[in-house]
Amino acid sequence: MENRLIRTQQDRIIGGVCGGLARYLNIEVVLVRLFFVVFALVGGIGPLVYIILWIVVPSEEQIGGSTTQVYSVDGEVIKERAENFKDEFVEMVNRPGKKTGLYIGVALILVGAYIFLKNLNIPWLAWVNNNVILAAMILLAGVALLVVSLKRGK
Prior knowledge:
By secondary structure, this protein is an all-alpha fold. It contains 6 helices and no strands. Helix 2 crosses helix 3 and helix 2 runs antiparallel to helix 6. The radius of gyration is 18 Å and the shape is globular.
């Protein structure tokens, strides 16, 4: 079976992008979600990348659940998906996933804790900044992917 990047319906919280990336990379979906949250905090690029992937990557229902079907993307397809993005977003807000509240709550707690600690101006926390968090997340991502690939090789 061929491994393709698609937006999943099963691991869907917002658009299914994180679930699809996790399935494609064969890692835990929580790690992918965590990376998007961190990249949203550090530089704000996370939501932009997520929206672009939501529009560009086909969903399971768009390709009919078949992973062997050849699926081409052209300007018309992307234009149609961009127009349907609003409808999908409204549907997602009206019918959230089972764990949506949990993930949003955890994300808000982490963001609030980070902003709170930064505003306390505690001297021994002066080293914590966006660059340190970004570097730590890149290191953790590399280690996680290395561990997963080593486990697959055994």
